[in-house]
């Protein structure tokens, strides 16, 4: 199913407005009313990047990763499924529960015993888009601060060190997004999630330096995005773990496939 540009823009505007006013179980219900599950069935290549990128950009959260993984496994959506986490642990993302004590109390994620193996490629790609969206949100905050903040009679955005940090962040995010757009198999999705995680961590590091002390305060939005990407990076394998896993796959195969046809 194809969607024309105008319809896609209207859909994005509606989703962004919904995410700006709701999060958690409330957003889960709102997305269901907007036809999220139908979109997941009929146009996953459009729905997954759009919804998960907007979750990152708006800072909202919803347990829709469950739906992506369940559908990839051939099961009905609407429930939950144990998900592997960094370090060999497992978690469940509750659909209606309050933020859990695990992983900093930011999301309704609970630690559980080891679950059954599930297909990970689609979930990793979805998380990659979420991480890219969060990276863009952090970059936007840092850029605006650099434009507004004046020192020595000049906006700090004119200082070369600040511009280098913002530029490096943008390059990392754009590269991760290109990798996500090209991901079409298990190895591609693994590498895309690793690239997105690395880009988000790069954004967190550089944008914190650009913002300085204000970025550490509870009143500023940056620390919420930093906390979120640290949690999301560990889901379905951290950047470090996935990089090692990709290396092991390539060594075992004795060659590297062409991931992008130029």
Automatic annotation (TrEMBL):
<feature type="domain" description="Acyl-CoA dehydrogenase/oxidase C-terminal">
    <location>
        <begin position="120"/>
        <end position="238"/>
    </location>
</feature>
<keyword id="KW-0285">Flavoprotein</keyword>
<dbReference type="InterPro" id="IPR009075">
    <property type="entry name" value="AcylCo_DH/oxidase_C"/>
</dbReference>
<keyword id="KW-0560">Oxidoreductase</keyword>
<dbReference type="Pfam" id="PF00441">
    <property type="entry name" value="Acyl-CoA_dh_1"/>
</dbReference>
<protein>
    <submittedName>
        <fullName>Acyl-CoA dehydrogenase</fullName>
    </submittedName>
</protein>
<dbReference type="GO" id="GO:0003995">
    <property type="term" value="F:acyl-CoA dehydrogenase activity"/>
</dbReference>
<keyword id="KW-0274">FAD</keyword>
<dbReference type="InterPro" id="IPR036250">
    <property type="entry name" value="AcylCo_DH-like_C"/>
</dbReference>
């Amino acid at each position: 199913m194809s969607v024309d540009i105008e319809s896609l823009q209207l859909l994005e505007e509606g989703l962004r407005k919904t995410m700006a006013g709701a999060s958690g179980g409330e957003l889960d219900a709102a997305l269901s009313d907007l036809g999220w599950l139908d979109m997941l069935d009929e146009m996953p290549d459009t729905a997954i990047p759009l919804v998960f990128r907007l979750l990152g950009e708006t800072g909202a959260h919803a347990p829709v990763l469950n739906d992506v993984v369940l559908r990839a496994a051939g099961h009905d959506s609407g429930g939950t499924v144990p998900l592997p986490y960094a370090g060999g642990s497992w978690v469940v993302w509750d659909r209606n529960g309050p933020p859990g004590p695990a992983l900093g109390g930011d999301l309704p994620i609970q630690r559980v015993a080891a679950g059954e193996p599930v297909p990970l490629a689609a979930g990793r790609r979805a998380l990659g888009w979420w991480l890219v969206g969060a990276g863009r949100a952090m970059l936007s905050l840092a850029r605006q601060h650099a434009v507004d903040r004046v020192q020595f009679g000049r906006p700090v955005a004119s200082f070369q060190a600040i511009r280098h940090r913002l530029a490096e962040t943008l390059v990392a995010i754009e590269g991760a997004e290109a990798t996500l757009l090209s991901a079409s198999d298990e190895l591609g999705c693994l590498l895309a999630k690793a690239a997105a995680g690395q880009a988000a961590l790069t954004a967190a590091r550089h944008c914190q330096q650009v913002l300085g002390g204000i970025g550490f305060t509870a009143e500023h939005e940056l620390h919420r995005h930093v906390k979120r990407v640290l949690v999301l990076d560990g889901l379905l394998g951290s950047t470090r773990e996935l990089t090692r896993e990709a290396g092991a796959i390539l060594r075992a195969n004795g060659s590297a496939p062409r991931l992008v046809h130029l």
